[in-house]
Amino acid sequence: MNSIFDELAPHLTDADDPVLWQTVLGMACNEISSEASQAQTRRDIFLVVGPCSSWLRPHQTRWRVGDLEFAWPSGYGGVGHSRTGLPQLDWCCCFHYEGGDYTIIGVPHRFKKRQLVLRVAIPARSRDRKKASINMLWTPGTPGNPSNRDVRLLALFREQANWRVIGSDRPLPGDLWRGEVLPPPSKRFAPDGSERRCSSVERLAVPYPMSIKTPPGLRLSEHEIRQVQDAAAQRFGLDDFYLDRLTDRDDSAEIDAEIIEDMIADGEFTLAEFERFCNSLAIPAHDEAGDLAPAAAQAFMEHKFGQEVFTVRLPTTEDAASTTYLALAALAQEQQLRLRPAMGGEIDLANPGRLPPHWHRFLIGKDATDLESLSSHDK
Questions:
Q1: In a domain, 129, yes or no
Q2: Which of 3, 53, 190, 212 could form a disulfide with 124 if both were Cys (CB 3.0 to 4.6 A apart)?
Q3: CB–CB of 112/372 below 8 Å?
């Protein structure tokens, strides 16, 4: 493991925490040695490691380990703008595993069919983080099951100068807690107030959600939002509306505060920018504990990314889904609003197409990952 870190260390910046990298590399090496020894495979095994600075933003899907919630670590690769998307690596190094040793090699443009790859995405600019979600992907599968790609998640928590792995989305050696997937607040609670739960497989098998949102910087009043909802209900018979910002409002705002902290750490904007926005509205940027104020965080997110007016799940039959989708596109264009898949991206209202992007893949819960896109800047 030390030899791997020695090869990676020259690529790290002052904003990267070397202790986090060493901890994750230790887990990845244990994963490979455990899988390889149990399966006794003759296939070549490779480890690909690199940082990701462009995680899917913003989204509120979390996974819970004990009392802590972590951002779901998805990116813009594979099915783009999907919560099942592959985190794209800023750069990466590749190591061949053989007989317990690792040898650095050039990153292949394409791996051969019988070669197994464990791909590890580590958050960039991690020195100031308190929590980290790690995405580990086996392709085309694990040594024990080489035909089925396998995504594994790790949750790490900083304790002073050290990082501790406190959980995974599946059992790991050492009786670590198993993580639990939490949908966004709007989809998390059933009508009776109980909390919905979903497994890492069930999270994919859901109807395709679409959101009507304002352009960034435009804020509608509650009365204006209700007018748009009523217009949709009367004209198209859409009655399955839900509002992320209104459902479980406090929880949603607290998650927005965590998202903003992560985005500031990733350099997507600065704390000063957030504080200037709060000053312009005469609202406190921080709470009594000195953390970001949830209400201010929610207002800032709506200002930066648009305010959600409503979200509706498309029907699961193709013709009905197309009819509803085109009706939503027409409504959004008429109201000078935006139509966005809940997985991210933007619909061209002038040319929306018959169905939204990746509708079939989303519905059946499949994700086509492009193995040629291991990183945007291979090293």
A1: yes
A2: 53
A3: no
Write down the pTM of the prediction: 0.56
| Burial state string for 142-155 with b = 16 or more CB within 10 A and e = fewer than 16 | bbeebeebbbbbbb
User: In total, how many domains does the chain have?
Assistant: 2
Domain range enclosing 228? 209-364
Each residue's pLDDT tens digit, 73-122 = 766 655 434 455 678 888 999 999 988 899 999 988 888 878 899 999 99
Band of pLDDT at residue 275, cut at 50, 70 and 90? very high
Distance from C-alpha of 378 to C-alpha of 135, rounded to nearest angstrom: 18
DSSP code at position 10: G
Is residue 329 assigned to a domain?
A: yes
Tens of pLDDT, residues 281-327: 999 999 888 889 888 988 898 888 888 888 777 877 888 889 889 98
For residue 40, give every residue at least 6 positions away whose Cβ sits within 8 Å of its Cβ, in sequence order, or none.
none
> Does 140 sit behind a cis peptide bond, omega within 30 degrees of 0 on the bond before it?
yes
39, 88: one domain: yes
Q: Which two tokens stand for residue 268?
A: 């997507």
pLDDT over 90 percentage in the chain? 26
H-type alpha helices, 202-281? 222-236, 249-265, 271-281
**Helices 318-334 and 222-236: angle between axes, nearest 10 degrees:** 140
Residues 231 and 169 in one domain: no
Cβ proximity of 105 and 95 under 8 Å: yes
Compute the distance between CA of residue 171 and CA of residue 60 in angstroms, rounded to an integer: 24
Q: Which residue has the tokens 């090496």?
A: 29
184: helix, coil or strand? coil
Bridge-partner residues for 311, per DSSP? Answer: 211, 242
CA 196 to chain centre: 19
pLDDT tens digits along 121-144: 998 888 888 888 898 989 888 888
Task: Tell me the CB-side half-sphere exposure of residue 286, using CA atoms within 13 A.
Answer: 7
